[in-house]
Amino acid sequence: MKGLAAVATSVEEAQARRQPLPGARARHSPVKAAEAPVAAPPDLEPTIYRFIIRHSWRRQLALLLVTFASFPFLYISLELPKTIINHAIREDAKFPQFIAGLEFDRIPYLMALCGAFLAVVLVSGGFKYCINTFKGQLGERMLRRFRYQLYLRLLRFPLSHFNKTSSAQIIPMVTAECESLGGFIGDALVTPAFQGGTLLTIILFMFMQDPVLGAAAISLYPLQAYVIPKLQRKVNDLNKQRVRTARIVADRIQESAAGMVEIHANDTVKLHLTDFASLLGRIYDIRFEIYRRKFFVKFLNNFIAQLTPFFFYSIGGYLVIQGSLSFGALVAVLAAYKDMASPWKELLDFYQQKEDSRIKYGQIIEQFQPAGLADAALLLDEPDDVPRLEGELSATNLSLAEDDRSRVVDSVTFSVRLDEHVAVIGQSGGGKSEIALLLARLVRPSGGRIMIGGHDFADMPLAVVGRRLGYAGATPYLFAGTLRDNLLLGLRHRPLRPAEYDDPGERRRARQLNEARRSGNIEFDLHADWVDYESAGVSDSEELARRIAEILRRLDFESDVYNFGLRWRIDPAVDAELTKRLLEARQALAERLAADGITKLVETYDPERYNTNASVAENLLFGTPIGPGFELEALADNAYVLAVLDKVGLTDDLIEAGRQVAAMMSEMFADLPPEHEFFEQFSFISASDLPGFAAILSAIDKGGIAALRQEQRKRLLSLPFKLVAARHRLDVLDDAMQKRLLDARRAFRRDLPAEAAGQIEFFDPASYNAAASLQDNILAGKIAYGEADAPVRVPVVLAEVLEALALRPAVVDIGLGYEVGTGGSRLSLAQRQRTAIARALLKRPDLLILNEASAALDGQAQSKVSEGVREEMVGRGLIWVLHRASLARSFDRILVMSGGKLAEQGRFAELDRKDSLTALLIAAE
Amino acid sequence: MSLAQEYEMLRRVPFFSEMEPARLKLLAFMSERVGYDAGNTLFCQGDQADAAYLIITGEAEIIVDTPSGPLTIATLGAHEIVGEMAILCDVPRTATVRAKDRLVALRIAKDPFLRMVREFPNMAVSIMRELAHRLELTNKQLQAALSEVRSLREGSIPQDPGHPVPRPSAKEPGAPPAK
After folding, report:
1. How far is A728 from chain B, CA to nearest CA, in Å?
2. pLDDT tens-digit profile of B30-68?
3. Which of B29, B56, B120 to mutate to test the interface with A (most CBs of A within 10 A)?
């Protein structure tokens, strides 16, 4: 509690102390501040009730008032049935009756009362509906606020914290663990107020009937109030343990997933199973203990609740017999006591839920209070304009201590002009990498300070540091999404151009904004255009595309992206213009191949010819399958395909072809061990299937193909589907067979049922195939097997044709749409590193810090990238921590780190002398 | 030309003649057929060796770089194998091989080939036998050449000037220089 208050104060102090930066005027302009969509977030409240009261006291109050307003109707809805029976239905009722001065006879009176009853029930039900909805809304908004605050805290965590905490522990805290808090928050005030009020009324009523009996009725409450929290406390402790253990389970699962290689490589499956089982056992023990105690509390409660009637009957009865208490009073008190049971039980349940929520809240926020939390305002401040960093960066006595107090950077002092290119070298572990992290403000120094252009680096808003500084490390993270998204990441700091909505969209957005505001969430629109063209130095998306291509070329990455583009698909409906041009490219390529006399390198898809470089399956389908129905691998299982083969009379011949393939395979592969790599690389039949086929073959030897079972025929039939005539060179695919397969292709297409038509995109020399890749569309055929030239020459010619048609940028642009996969897993490390450098260059930083950012590149690529980055950064600052000292040669200046200290600095020529550390480092390579 | 015909052709190459049919069929199946237009090179002198080639149709020129420029030392035709020594003993190509006209060859890749040799002792034995046979041939040629040199030194005319000088190095350009 105290600690938090202290943190809060220090944050305010820090804000007050901070010198306004040039251009950082936003905070001083009241108009702007009112519009500012990022409210300075309050710190997390230490208890859930503080959180509730701070953020929802108005709503809670309104909820209470509405709840109380519903009471009269509830009362009337209970009262009316009595009136109906006593005054309208009972025979001795007197008539006429009067309501509001009007006179009623028996039947109209009954009807009027029943009508009133219906109305009151409706009103009362309506109240209930409103209150519940209101409670739900309140709870959800508060939950949203809470989660948002947790996530914001997560973003403020110091980098080092993530080394210690696993995400598997954090995720359930933000998702599952706080789920039940929402429900509780809605009830937090209303339930105790409502049930407590009811209880108090009943107690009051009892005291008015008879003070002694009243006292008797509540005589055991103090006992319950004393014992139950005591018992509950133990349950609370167990609950805490349960949550902790559940987090360990989550952690263990994540670890197992991440360490699967080690588990299999070291055969620790049983160890891990045992470890996991013991964790589950711990959870079981805890939960079982919780149940025992929880139900014991319940048992005790029930017993005490029944103890009171015992007193009523014994003492009350005695008093009535003695004549000191009227019979009527006893009955009334008994009835009232019965009514007490329900609110009392509700209150106890609420108490348990409250305790549960209190602990959960406490346990969650406890994990979100690491030391060294970044200042939220520093993260969220949005200056009017972000000034360029100019002048000089100077580090004074810069130190960084690890947890164990050893100094990885030890009182380092140096300065770098922001138009200078400086290399940092040294042995790994010597502190060079930490220097980069400190200079990018990714870790905070434990001593000393950094000034940039006369401003204290520590106090600059992230809006300045994250935009004017570029950073790329050795293992950059790419977010799942397209390559383009990842490149543009450094240009997306805030929405710059609002999204355009139609009317319903506008209303939806207004509603979303309103809700975000009510939950204290950020108010930006995700669908707005966030890309900051200006900081990339371009004016629109077209220029940006050109700029990206330029940077990619500098980093020797453009051809990779071009190849991504060739492998990617486009939607002709969306890119009609490009589709047209790609068809022109198809034409141009065909002409070029003809002009060069190398048409044989590509066998085009001709509806009238069998394609010898495509498989039998591809020749039959003669198109690209969309969806799983006609997948090439499973084409032999497709009922329609089988029907077509039957129709053209090919089934038996293909089975015969299958027999020949099987015979050949079993002859060639028979005495290879089943795990032999040749199976994987060359065989049509996997090692495990080989005995099955051997059995089929010997069955044929005995009784011919006719003797085969249906399932065996099918297996044989599937074999020739994979044959490629030009590649496998088997006699079974002779000209006659090819001609008959051509007939089957025609029959297949002619009789294709309408519902299957959408599942295949047929090859057509004149139209674009949306299901096929760009390259397949331009080639419109197969690169020929058996032409030594083809694999090299065709891509070259293709590239030349695209270049001539000025289509290469379009292909690169499509390549930028390549999905990089989770964490960039579909890119190689070298590609990821290039992406990170490109991302940093794209925002034109005043100072670029590269931390072994190209270490995964081979020597030649390395120097090309180095050159490209240097050219890009001419006139601006570059600090490059190098993994190899010899790369430092061309830099303006070199800093040499050793043992956490700055051992040498100067120009390469000065340092490269006998016995210098630099010379030693180079010699050690 | 089908796989079966390629198999027949392989069988007639001394190098493979004693291999079991099933093995040899597998080798043929694993090999790729490649076509070269006139003037295209199969491989260059100094390249790492990754395959041997059995010429199916067409002719190949064997060219060696000499101080006075490239020199064609032999021309090989159908049924002849080229580059097989280099894949057995991991040395760079000792000559450049170029298609003289349209050439179709069977490309026998090094890795699967070596794996088969390693796993099927019979195959290794037949290759050994072939190599021994070649060595014997080379020895004979060497002796003939030596006696020729000797007689030249002695100033006398060789006994049998019409004796054809075999050219092992031309037939196996992939072979390392005799050690």
Report:
1. 7
2. 898 899 989 999 999 888 888 999 999 999 999 999 888
3. B29
The CATH number of whichever domain residue B62 belongs to comes to 2.60.120.10
Q: How many CB atoms lie within 10 A of CB A212?
A: 15
* Nearest chain B residue to A597, by CA: B37
Is A669 an 8 Å CB contact of chain B? yes
Q: Looking at this protein, which amino acid is placed at residue B174? A: G
Contact of A531 with A540, CB cutoff 8 Å: no
A791 touches B at CB < 8 Å: no
DSSP A784: P
Q: Are B115 and A669 in contact (CB < 8 Å)?
A: no
Question: Across chain B, what does the average pLDDT equal?
Answer: 81
Nearest to B3 among A669, A678, A729 (CB): A729
Q: How close, in Å, is residue A742 to chain B by CA atoms?
A: 21
pLDDT digits (tens, 9 = 90+) for A344-399: 888 888 988 898 899 999 989 988 988 888 888 888 888 878 888 989 999 999 99
Residue A678 in contact with residue B30, Cβ under 8 Å? Answer: yes
Confidence of residue A512 (pLDDT cuts 50, 70, 90): very high
Contact state of B33 with A729 under an 8 Å Cβ cutoff:
yes
- Sorted by where each begins, the domain ranges of chain A are 48-367, 392-482+827-923, 626-734+748-762
Q: Nearest residue of A to residue B1 by CA position?
A: A729
Give the chain A residue whose CA is nearest to the CA of B27.
A668
| Residue B50 included in any domain | yes
Q: How far is CA B60 from CA B8, B35, B43, in A?
A: 21, 12, 11
**Residues of chain A contacting B42 with CB distance shorter than 8 Å:** 788
- Is position B176 within any domain? no
CB pairs under 8 A between A and B: 52
- Quick check: is B9 in a domain? yes
pLDDT band at A547 (very low <50, low <70, confident <90, very high): very high
Query: Are B22 and A667 in contact (CB < 8 Å)?
Result: yes
Its domain, for residue B155, covers 3-171
Phi-psi region of A730 (alpha: psi -120 to 50; beta: other; left: phi over 0): beta
CB A252 within 8 A of CB A279: yes
Nearest CB to B2 within list A677, A731, A785: A731
Give the start-end residues of each E strand in A379-452: 392-401, 407-417, 421-426, 447-452
Asked if B132 has any chain A CB less than 8 Å from its own CB, the reply is no
Count CA atoms within 13 Å of residue A612 on its CB side.
21
CATH number of A392-482+827-923: 3.40.50.300
Q: Which residues in chain A are contacts of B2 at CB distance < 8 A?
A: 729-731
Judge whether A594 and A603 are in contact, CB under 8 Å: no
pLDDT at A15: 40
Cβ A678–B29 below 8 Å, yes or no? Answer: no
Q: How far apart are CA B84 and CA B77, in angstroms?
A: 15
Q: Tell me how close the Cα of A802 comes to any Cα of chain B, in angstroms.
A: 25
Strand partners, A624: A761
Over residues B98-118, the mean pLDDT reads 89
List Cα–Cα distances, A444 to A22, A320, A458, A467, A871, in angstroms: 23, 80, 8, 18, 31
For A48-367, CATH number out of 3.20.20.70, 1.20.1560.10, 3.40.50.720, 2.50.20.10 equals 1.20.1560.10
Is there a domain that residue B63 lies in?
Answer: yes
pLDDT tens profile A253-275:
988 998 999 999 999 999 999 99
B2 touching A (Cβ < 8 Å): yes
User: To probe the interface with B, which of A668, A672, A679, A722 has the most B CB atoms within 10 Å?
Assistant: A668
Q: Is residue B26 within 8 angstroms of chain A, CB to CB?
A: yes
